[in-house]
Amino acid sequence: MDARLAPAQTASEEDIPAIANLLKEVFGPERAWDEELAWQYLQNPAGKAIYINAHNETGDLIAHYAVIPTFAFAEPKFSQIRTYLSLNTAVHPKAQGQGLFKRTAQAAYDHLTSLGPHVILGVANENSVHGFINSLGFHLLGQLKVEAHFPGGSPRPGAPRLLAPGPDGVRWRLSRPAGGYEVSAEGQMTCTRSFKGMPVHCILTAGGLDVSQVQAPAYGRLARLTRPAIYATYGPTTHFAWVVPESLRPSPFHLICRPSLEGPILPLLNHIQTRRFELFDFDVV
């Protein structure tokens, strides 16, 4: 099957149906991809998604790689660096084996490099992390911890956050279709999901964000006392929790980073390793 890569483009409403259909083919129809992509690609206050598409000889979409602009670094000396999150990558089953994952991703990176210095952050599972590291120039920063807190327990913020979303970013994050998020007065954000058939609270962020302008259901004390909570984070923590063994997790998550800077990258990599990066920052629930 021949493949033709289109030039990099900024997300448009007209592209959403074809991309959603491809993601359904690759990942399954369980998610409402049309609504999800409209939220991810078009409504993000940091900017619209940028992607590379590949088509076959009849014009059908067979591969897609997208990044979205994300929140700025919280540290002032890095805050002017443009930041992106590596998000959706998909190759149609009939087009696999042609190197389209690498070709579409590399084309996207070349385009971002032409726009100036930037950093691409990503969270890769065990199946994809080696491809990002060995083929696409990402640096492996480490594995995210998944902590379980018994009913009544709750993580403390720990290290300062890596990214600073601002009020618009918080509102957008909580407007995810069918997200069902709740917010505590301390800025902790949660949602209820099923884990091996048992309802648990997934904690998006341990707190430290301004939620005074956010309209969301309150996460009350009664809920905290009746259900266990799961919290995934990268970076130093200052609290005690039971770390969920890998055998009970769907797949380990790894934080990866691809800097394209004018100066040395080591100071930034060292900085990232001292900061907190949470579910809130990469949208897994």
List the helices and strands and how they pair.
Layout: E1 4-5, E2 9-10, H1 16-27, H2 33-42, E3 50-55, E4 61-69, E5 72-73, E6 82-91, H3 100-115, E7 118-124, H4 129-136, E8 139-143, E9 145-149, E10 163-164, H5 166-174, E11 181-183, E12 189-195, E13 198-205, H6 221-226, E14 229-234, E15 242-243, E16 254-260, H7 266-272, E17 277-278, H8 279-282
**What fraction of residues sit in β-strands?**
25-35%
| Average pLDDT score | 85
Measured as a percent range, the helix fraction is: 25-40%
CATH superfamily of the largest domain: Gcn5-related N-acetyltransferase (GNAT)
Instruction: Kindly report the oligomeric state of this protein.
Output: single chain
Q: Radius of gyration over alpha carbons? A: 19 Å
Q: Ends: how far apart?
A: 35 Å
CATH class of the largest domain, named Alpha Beta
Give the biggest beta sheet.
8 strands, mixed
Q: What is the correct CATH architecture of the largest domain?
A: 3-Layer(aba) Sandwich
In total, the number of strands is 17
Nutshell version of this structure?
The protein is 25% helix and 30% strand.
Could you describe the 3D structure shown?
The model has no long low-confidence stretch (mean pLDDT 85). The longest helix has 16 residues, at 100-115. This protein has two domains: 4-143 and 251-282, Gcn5-related N-acetyltransferase (GNAT) (Aminopeptidase); 145-248, no CATH class. 25% of the residues lie in helices and 30% in strands. Helix 3 (100-115) links the parallel strand 6 and strand 7 (118-124). The chain has helices at residues 16-27, 33-42, 100-115, 129-136, 166-174, 221-226, 266-272, 279-282, and strands spanning 4-5, 9-10, 50-55, 61-69, 72-73, 82-91, 118-124, 139-143, 145-149, 163-164, 181-183, 189-195, 198-205, 229-234, 242-243, 254-260, 277-278. The strands form three sheets. Strands 1, 2, 3, 4, 6, 7, 8 and 16 form an eight-stranded mixed beta sheet that branches. With 285 residues, the chain is α+β, with helices and mostly antiparallel strands.
